[in-house]
Design a protein that fits this description.
Layout lengths: L17 E5 L8 E7 L4 E5 L9 E4 L3 E7 L9 H11 L1 H7 L1 H13 L3 H30 L1
């Protein structure tokens, strides 16, 4: 039998300091950090940047692990320590600059469009497609000649 090696360094692990995104419940769409692991289903989370999100235990099924980690966060660290490390790491800036956050913001903007605004987007996309096809046809005709 052959040996199998599993490289797990790129996996998102449930760990103290991991930044999570709430996907369900009353805190949906908010960021927090794992402060303590309670058991295999629950973690203690805290969000120093958002006063409306208190320190509480949350089920892992309601969270999504992000790629962001706050390194060297001590277990069960208080809000003050977490706030200092959160700001030192620039978690909000890194999150807002990520493709994931930008696509979530884009989807949110699309959901909030009115009927007329959706129509304007449709017309703009049609016009863009027309211009691209026109340029492509010009290049193709010059290549044949």
């Amino acid at each position: 039998m052959g040996d199998a090696t599993v490289i797990a360094s790129s996996w998102r692990l449930v760990e103290v300091g991991r930044v999570v995104l709430f996907t369900r419940g009353q805190y949906e769409g908010k960021l927090a950090a794992i402060v303590e692991i309670i058991d295999h289903r629950r973690v203690l989370v805290d969000a120093p940047s958002d006063a409306s999100l208190p320190r509480h235990s949350a089920a892992l099924k309601d969270l999504t692990l992000t790629h962001l980690v706050i390194p060297k966060l001590p277990r069960a660290a208080g809000t003050g320590v977490l706030r200092k490390l959160w700001e030192a790491e620039g978690v909000e800036k890194n999150w807002n600059g990520s493709a994931w956050a930008q696509s979530r913001a884009k989807a949110q903007r699309r959901r909030e469009l009115t009927d007329f605004e959706r129509f304007k987007v449709l017309r703009a996309r049609k016009q863009q497609r027309f211009e691209v096809r026109k340029a492509f046809a010009k290049v193709r005709s010059s290549a044949k000649a």
